């Protein structure tokens, strides 16, 4: 499918992409870029990449697809460098979760050489690092690709084929559509879980029931990573909080008024949604 | 320990108490009360009780401990009947989760014969019915017993011993202390989970990530049961929503202001709490 793919940042996601590409023979060669020699060694040992380098510019030579799988905070500076230094028309994508922000920032680049299409594979785990990478990470995973009026259509088609070949279930959306969906399905649970966790007192932690364990599981996520996501996707995050707060107020009011029918209706609707999510 | 124990409502919890009492030989005889013949048959088949009846008054004869394990909504009418009809000084307890309400309602009874002490075993599962009862249900489970200035001290001691013999980790608290703790550790997760569920849109359900699955798991709970709990424990539920809403506002404001340090501080604190809950 590609002669050479370059993966910048070979951690859990970058490493899984490398393993999956090699297993399915989607590239003659997979080049990996890490920030440290020790990480490169781990990526090579895991056979997630064929060759490695610490130098982004060097890694771009001959690449037909460049995948930025770095920490969220580094996506923009790396993407800017990549977009100005790749061969004309090379497809460049990222795997971050804040799409409006990334597309807007990259739109500011003058005379970009790369053709940027955003990707958001909804896969991963609490585990980190290339040592936890898996070649089946994207099997049946929802993958969203973002498209704007400026996005190159053939690049979208090719990237769609690429993720489909990795096993993903690909949808193409605009960045705002993507961010709205993800704010409800992922950012909101993180905001709310953190707020439930910090609402606890010493005694309620000691008597934690199963429901509290479920509600606070998401708070185990990496604080630095999520701080960066909340900052980058600020608009959609705040909008999802607004929607949630209104729903919470309706339930609160029904409880205050002892409106049994209204409470039951809300809880039944919640149960139906929860059932659908598990289907 | 007791000649005769009567369990009113032989479902998941009532049945597990019966099985555990018989396994540990805490009673010469366990009497079960159900609303239907078919339920009695299931309870006898599961060997959760020695004898069964549909008649509460009949079941009280000779009982030294009466445990009300009925649906939440039935606790008060059943407890009132029991308190007026047991032999003087019989210990009466329930296994519901709203303690201020129960204690307040039972305080209105004139000339009660029974000695009421509230219990709240923090055990159970999504499964229901005596067919899912287990004799080890209370092993290491936190059990809260409630005590007020009017509660008979020897009854508290005996009930504490009883739950300890069933394997529980018993604490004695006042009803308001109990309700405050449980509102944060159990009611709040249910209110918030329902609000997250009803905030979702068709698309966000389709792209549900692991975090949304965790956040909405609690919404699978029985709507009728939780409606009753929210009504009975209205005060503490509303107070826990108030606490949560304030915490949510602090995080929201930090995101709005792009206050990276504040966001990180909150997420780190949330992670520490979440870690403690899992210890």
What would your notes on this structure say?
- The structure is a homodimer of 279-residue chains.
- In chain A, the strands form two sheets. In chain A, strands 3-2-1-4-5-6 form a six-stranded parallel beta sheet, with helices on both faces.
- Chain A has two domains: 2-173, NAD(P)-binding Rossmann-like Domain (Rossmann fold), CATH 3.40.50; 178-277, 6-phosphogluconate dehydrogenase C-terminal fold.
- In chain A, helix 7 (175-199) crosses helix 11.
- The first copy, chain A, has helices at residues 12-23, 37-45, 56-59, 75-85, 99-107, 153-165, 175-199, 202-206, 210-216, 223-232, 234-256, 260-277, and strands at 2-8, 27-33, 51-53, 65-68, 91-94, 115-116, 118-121, 142-146, 169-173.
- Chain A has 279 residues and is an alpha/beta fold.
- In chain A, 53% of the residues are buried.
- In chain A, strand 2, helix 2 (37-45) and strand 3 (51-53) form a beta-alpha-beta unit.
- The interface between A and B is large, with 79 and 79 residues.
Order of strands across the widest beta sheet of chain A? 3-2-1-4-5-6
- Most residues in contact, chain pair and counts: A-B, 79 and 79 residues
Tell me the β content of chain A. Answer: 5-15%
* Overall radius of gyration of chain A: 21 Å
| Level-2 CATH architecture of the largest domain in chain A | 3-Layer(aba) Sandwich
CATH topology value of the largest domain in chain A: Rossmann fold
Report the major sheet of chain A.
6 strands, parallel
Indicate the percent of residues in helices of chain A: 40-55%
How many domains in all of chain A?
2
- SS summary, helix count of chain A: 12
CATH class of the largest domain in chain A: Alpha Beta
Report the order of strands and helices of chain A. Answer: EHEHEHEHEHEEEHEHHHHHH
Oligomeric state, counting identical vs distinct chains: homodimer
The total beta strand count of chain A reads: 9
Runs of chain A in which pLDDT lies below 50 for 5 or more consecutive residues are none
Span between termini of chain A: 34 Å
Question: Superfamily at the CATH H level of the largest domain in chain A?
Answer: NAD(P)-binding Rossmann-like Domain
Give me the secondary-structure category of chain A: alpha/beta
Q: What is the typical, i.e. mean, pLDDT of chain A? A: 95
The backbone outline of chain A, from C-alpha atoms, is elongated
């Amino acid at each position: 499918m590609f002669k050479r793919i370059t993966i910048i940042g070979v951690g859990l996601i970058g490493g899984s992409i490398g393993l999956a590409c090699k297993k399915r023979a989607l590239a003659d060669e997979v080049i990996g870029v890490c920030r440290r020699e020790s990480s490169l060694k781990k990526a090579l040992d895991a056979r997630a990449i064929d060759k490695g380098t610490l130098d982004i510019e060097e890694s771009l030579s001959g690449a037909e697809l460049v995948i930025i799988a770095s920490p969220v905070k580094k996506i923009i500076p790396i993407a800017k460098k990549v977009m100005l230094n790749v061969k004309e028309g090379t497809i460049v994508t990222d795997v971050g979760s804040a799409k409006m922000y990334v597309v807007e920032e990259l739109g500011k680049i003058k005379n970009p050489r790369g053709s940027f299409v955003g990707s958001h594979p909804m896969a991963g785990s609490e585990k980190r690092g290339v040592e936890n990478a898996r070649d089946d990470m994207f099997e049946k995973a929802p993958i969203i690709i973002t498209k704007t009026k400026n996005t190159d259509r053939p690049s979208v088609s090719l990237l769609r084929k690429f993720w489909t070949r990795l096993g993903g279930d690909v949808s193409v959306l605009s960045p705002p559509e993507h961010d709205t969906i993800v704010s409800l399905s992922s950012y909101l649970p993180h905001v709310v879980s953190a707020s439930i966790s910090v609402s606890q007192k010493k005694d309620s932690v000691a008597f934690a029931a199963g429901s509290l364990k479920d509600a606070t599981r998401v708070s185990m996520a990496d604080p630095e990573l999520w701080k960066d996501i909340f900052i980058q996707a600020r608009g959609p995050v705040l909008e999802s909080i607004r929607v949630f707060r209104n729903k919470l107020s309706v339930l609160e009011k029904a409880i205050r008024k002892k409106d049994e029918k209204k409470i039951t209706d809300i809880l039944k609707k919640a149960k139906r949604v929860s059932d659908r999510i598990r289907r």
